[in-house]
Amino acid sequence: MKPVIDYAELWPLFAVFGVACIGVAVEAFAPRRVRYPVQLVLALAGSIAALVGVVLIGRDLSSGGSVKGEVVMMGALAVDGPTLFGWGLLLVVAIAGALLFGERRLEGGVSAFAGQAAALPGAEPERDADAVRLDHTEVFPLLMFAVGGMMVFAAANDLLTFFVGLEVLSLPLYLLTGLARRRRLLSQEAALKYFLLGAFSSGFVIYGIALIYGYAGTMSFAGIHEAISNNLGNRTMLLIGLAMVLVGLLFKVGAAPFQAWTPDVYQGAPTQVTAFMGAATKVAAFFAMMRFLYVAFGSERWSWVPVLSVIAVLTMVIGAILAVAQTDVKRMLAYSSITHTGFLITGLVGARSAGLLTDNEITSTQSVLFYLVTYSFMTLGAFAVVSLVRDASGETTDFSRWAGLGKESPLVAGVFALFLLGFAGIPLTAGFAGKWAVFASAMSAGLWQVVIAAVLTSALAVFFYVRLIVVMYFHEPEGEGPSVALPSVMTAVTIAAAAVVTVALGILPGPVLDLAAHAGDFIR
Amino acid sequence: METEPYILLSAILFTIGAVGVLVRRNAIVVFMCVELMLNASNLALVTFAKANGNLEGQVAAFFVMVVAAAEVVVGLAIIMTIFRTRRSASVDDASLLRF
What share of chain A is helix, strand, coil (3-state, %, to 5)? Predict the structure, then answer.
C-alpha cells in the first residue's frame, strides 16, 4: 500500500507546524530587534490561517445533517466533527495565547519571559540581559509546537500517534513553565516538578500502550475495538493497559489522585503560560480521552465508567475542599481547575450507545465539547486579569494584596468577578450552561450519585469564588493597596473577548450547543 | 518464540523504574528511572511485535526512542538550570511552592 498524506484535510496542522519551524529559523537567522514582531505576526497568522482552514474543511465535510469524518494518514489521524471542533477551539485559544505572550506593556517594554533563561537569577549576566532589554522570543515557536501537538493529540486515531501527540504537546509546555521573568526560582521549580511528573506519567502511558497492543495485535483504535468485541487474548492484560493509559491521561487533565502538580505549576509558571496551558491542555486531553475511550474502548464501557465516576467525584471534592483553604489567587484558580476537571469527567462518563438516545437529548460528547468552550474562555480571561494586578515586584497574587481592588479599578474587579461567577456556575454566565449540559448528560445515563456529588460540590465552590469577590470589594486594602497596570491592546482584547463569550454563552448557549451537536460523534 | 520471559523482564524493569522515581531524591537519578520505564516499554513493544507477527510494535519502539531523546534534551536543560541556581539537584530542596 502506498503511503499518502491527505493534505486537503490536514493542512491546518501543517500550517501550525510549518509556522513553528519557520519560527525556529527566525530565531537562528533574523537580527534580534526584528524577532519579536516577526514571531508575533507569524504565530498569529499561522493560527488564523489554520482556523480558516478548519472552517473550510468543516464546510467541505458537512453533508446534510452532520459532519462526515475521514480517517486520514493511513489511519493515524481521524478528521471528523469532534476533531474539527477541537481544532477550532484549540486555535482560538492559541490566538489568545499568542496575544498574551506578546504583551510587553505590563513589564515596561519587555515580555513576561526571562531575558536570558540560562543566566543565574540575580547574577551579573541576568542584569546585563535586563539592561539591554532582552527577552526570549523562542516562546512563540514553542507555543506553536505545543498547539500542533495538541491538534495531533485531539485527532489521534492510533496509539502511537496518541503517544507522539502527547509528548509533542508536553515538552514545549515544560520549557514555557520555566521561563518567567520575575520569581524565577518558583518558575524553575514548577518546570522541574511538571517535567518529572509528566515524564513519569508518560512512562505509564507507553507501557499501557504496549500492553493494549499486546492484547489487540494492532495500534489502531478501530482494531482494538474489533479485538475487544471478538474477545481475543488475555483480558487482564487489556485492563491493566487501559488503567495505565488512563493514569497518564488523568495526570494531564489534573484529575485526582494525580492532581498534585496542578497548583504548583499553575502558580509557578508565567501567568500568560498558565492561561494558555490551563485552557488548551485540558481541551486537547479531553478530546484524546474521549476518542480513546469511546472509539477504542466503547464496548468496554462497563470497565471504565464506574472507575471514572469515582474519580470524577474524588476530583471535584478534593479540588473544592482544598480551594477553600487557599490564599493565593493563582493557586485558588488552579484548585478550581481541578474541580472543573471533575465536572468534565462527569459529562464524559455519561456516554451511552447511540441507540439509547432519544431525539433532542444532549449527548455526552456534545456536553463535554460545550463545557470545554465555556471553561477555556473563562480560564483565559481570568488568568489574563491576574497578570494585570501588580505591585513593585511584579504580579501580586496574594488575597491580602487584592483587597480593595473594587475601589482601585472597578472595571478590572468587575470583569474578574464575572469570570469567578462563571466558574461558580451562576445562571446567565457560560459556566451555568456548561454545568447544566454535563449534569444532564450524566443524569440521563443514570449516574445520579455523581450528579448529586457534583451539585453539592458546586455549592461549596460558590463559597470560595464569592470569598474572593468579597475580598476585592468589601475589604479595606492594607497599606497602599493593589495597583492595576494598563495592558496593551492585545491583553485587553483577550480579556474583552473572554468576557463577552462568558456572558453570551450564558444567555444564548444554543448556537454553540447546536454546533457541538452538529459535530456529531467520533468516527471509527 | 516463548514471549513470557521477555514480558516478565520488561515488567520487572518497569517496576524498578517506577519505584526508583518514587524513592530516589536526586533529579538526575529520578530522570534515569523514567528512562528505564520507557526502555522497559520498548522491550514489551518489540516482544509483542514478535508475538503478534506485525511490525507496528517495532515502529513504536523507534518512536519511543526518539521521544526519549527529545525528553532528555528538555529534561536535562531544566535540571541543569535548577542545579546552577540552587547548587543541588535534590527534588526535596525544591520546595518553595507548597500548600
Answer: 75, 5, 25
Q: What share of chain B has pLDDT > 70, as a percent?
A: 95
3-class SS of residue A351: coil
Mean pLDDT of chain A: 90
Measured between beta carbons, which residues in chain A are less than 8 angstroms from residue B31? 196, 199
A118–B81 CB contact, under 8 Å = yes
The ipTM value here is 0.96
Phi, psi of A70, deg, nearest 5: -135, 140
Which residue ranges form the domains of chain B, and what is each CATH number?
Answer: 4-86 (1.10.287.3510)
Write the pLDDT tens digit of every residue in A125-174: 888 888 888 888 999 999 999 999 999 999 999 999 999 999 999 999 99
Mean pLDDT over A339-355 rounds to: 83
A274 vs A463: CA distance, rounded Å: 23
Buried b (16+ CB within 10 A) or exposed e, A117-139: bebebeeeebeebbeeebbbbbb
Specify the pTM. 0.95
| Cβ contact, residue pair A268, B81, below 8 Å | no
Cα-based torsion angle of the residue sequence A489, A495, A498, A499 in order, rounded to the nearest 10 degrees: -120
| Angle (nearest 5°) at CA A351 between A345 and A356 | 155
